[in-house]
Amino acid sequence: MERAAPIGARWLGRIGYREAWALQKELVTQRAAGEIGDRLLVLEHDPVLTLGRQAAVEHVLATPRQLTRRGIEVIRVERGGEVTYHGPGQLVAYPIIGLADRGLLVRPLVAALEAAMIETAARLGVATFRRDGHPGCWVEGDDGRPHRKIGALGLRIERGVSYHGIALNIDPDLRDFDLIDPCGMPGLVSTSIAEELGRTAEPPTTAAVERAGAIFAEAFAAAIGAPLDWATERDLVPA
Question: Whole-angstrom Cα distance, residue 35 to residue 23?
């Protein structure tokens, strides 16, 4: 596969975490076997907490009873990183990339994902930055406020293929982040595009996430020097 082969980016809409997780594993197997090209899954999740493979469960602040009452499952997965919240109003993107065929190492892939988050936020009107030692995407502290996290990142590489990925807060209910120490950092302040633009009165919409997803897909493809094949038909994903 040539480095300039296209990435098949697909918008999946709102999808349960376990369904998307199973789809990622299926695509990783197919990609490692050379049966498909690279994929980028772009979507929104129902509310869920995920723990990285070495994440401390103590960073989940809500009790099991509180989570059950709210219908929020806690799932431990293979990626790196600590606890993360996913839910409505948040853009999630999972890159299924054969690193060797792209001539990519893990760090340049991480940098490309961070650059795509930064570009997406910028095009939506919010300046962000990459913070050394803290993967993801950040809004710089100002007027006595601390740095605020707007995007999370956690990857897994198996058989030379990446999966899991990023989560960028577009217009979620930020109170849901009170359930956790985001990224295992007590006191960390989470923010969103809507929060930074003063639009928190507007309810989360999947349409806003889809628009952001199209921007992210374009920016990520550009960051790794690949053409983009964008579609919204879910039945195209495994093809």
Answer: 15
